[in-house]
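Can't paste images in this forum, so I'm doing it all in text. The chain is below; anyone willing to post the predicted structure tokens underneath?
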Amino acid sequence: MRTTALRRGRRVLVAVVAVALTVPTASRATGAAEAADPCLPRTLVLSAMPIELAPLIAAAADTRTTTIHGRDYTSGRLRGHDVVLALTGIGPVNATRKTRQALRDLRCGGRPAIDSVVFSGVAGGDYIGDVVVPARWTLDAGKHHVGVDRRMLAAARRAARAHVPLAQQAPAGDPACACVTDPDLVGTVAVTHKPRMEVGGTGETTDPFGGRALECVPGGGDVFGCEPCPLQKQLDRDAERFAPSAVPFADPGFFLGYLRPGASGGAHYVAEDEETAAVAAVSAARGLPFLGLRGVSDGGGDPLNLPGFPFQFFYYRQLAADNAAAATMSFLAAWSGR
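Text version of the structure:
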């Protein structure tokens, strides 16, 4: 999500993960598992918010959602790749913690079950609807950078040259996660700039929450909810997780970071968000190839002339999330894997 001017025992765990990562059935597994095939190495596909992950889950085949340490992981096939899809939550603290947790949870016996990481989400950028794929990311306003995997970046360039089918008309979406209709069926305005996929440049991740974690909200809809809309059925569980962490919400200063300008020092960033650099840093520390793709939700090309973030974000978030998902799937189709 954009910030500029805005986890029973070890044996049971291993058994659960083995099934979650190998058995292609559409169900939710929460206990001990049956026998499973040997583990498959998978790509971990992450998003911060339900609205970002939902289009990818909808497009995946042979899905199975498994809960480990209170966190949901959906395994399946997506554009020729075995994947696990999961949410990090909003902000760099959540992104760091949840990526590390996923890499601990998703193991097959003593081996890692993840061999690469992809982030798909929305961000601030130059033109609403565009999808940007930076070659490197910074978490400290340009003092240090972490690069993405060069082969993944090359595949993104191939996908971009093949003209990814990006939408220009902004759908109304499903903000309350009512799941009554397809979020793409009700359209609103069209952005004035024809969206395209841009590869290269530097992306910036900032922390408007001052090092604190913004917990998801039970039944919190497509932005602040704990699961993608079609899966938001665990309200009791999520409420137990949310209640002890709700104290910061009583402090108005917790959200003031959204309203402060970013400390970019005049540098131009092709994408500005709250998670990607944190995920990239964890992936690099584990030696895992990484790529981040961000659909622009606030920027130029707004025919309504809304006053930037958060107004543009809430109006165009579905368009940006859908385009990010489309570009992510086009990238996966063009990438041969590790």
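The longest helix spans residues 311-334. DSSP finds eight helices and 17 strands in the chain.
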